[in-house]
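Structure representation.

___
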Amino acid sequence: MIRNIFKKSNIGTIIFFLLNATIIIGLFALGGVSSLLIGAALYMLSILLAFSGFGDWVLCVMAGAKKMTRTDMKIRMRPLLEIVYKKAMKKTPGLSNQLRLKVIYTPEPNAYAIGRRTICVTEGLFELPDDVVQGVLAHEVVHLALKHTHIQLLIGGGNFIITIFILIMRLIYSFLGIVTVGSILRSGSQGCLSTLPSLFIAGIIWLWTKFCMLFLMWSSRKNEFDADTYAAELGYGYELAKALDAIGTSEPQESLFKALFSTHPNTHERIARLQNMGVQYYRY
């Protein structure tokens, strides 16, 4: 796992993690040595919880993933996942031997790797041909094989405390906003000056969140390319390219700002990279 964390595509994630850790340490250090030790203990506890079964459960709940109970769904999807899984195991023996399959009841065809060993498929994915489904599953299984989702757990756990801090700051901002509305009504210009601390807090929170997310999203896009490459090496390059076209859209090129904060690279760029690897896929 350590080898998979400290690689080029995860530089942004590591920077994001270190920035959060620095802020958390700084916050608790203000209260002295005892406060710093308590903060460090809470930080480690949040990470341990994230890597436990509880962490997986929370992520599944947040994603709306449910236990797959329909027999016809199991008969259709489990054999396809098993075929992909066996190929991935040959290339990556360290892959978990207890993959779980869950379903998200949305009509859009897609799939997600969650936590340490969960693959979630949407109801819409069942409408696609078997080869396309296998291409999608291969990409998601690779995310688990390359420990991309483990890194998400690390960030989720490490970010738990800073998230609480930001929530508290937002609550303070909201409270100050309510108070200063009354102040403005009562004292005019003096009330306007009293709004400055709350506006400053809001601005800092917004800038901090956006700044950190730039690094995290950069790594996320790099990991998507890595997963595409690995899936092609497993023999699913054509199926994955076909799946990307089936799931992707024909929207115009994204703006730079939107692209910077996107978790996934442009679909056409992903397909082009697969074609440059030698994948014989042609739509047009």
Notes: The longest strand covers residues 100-104.
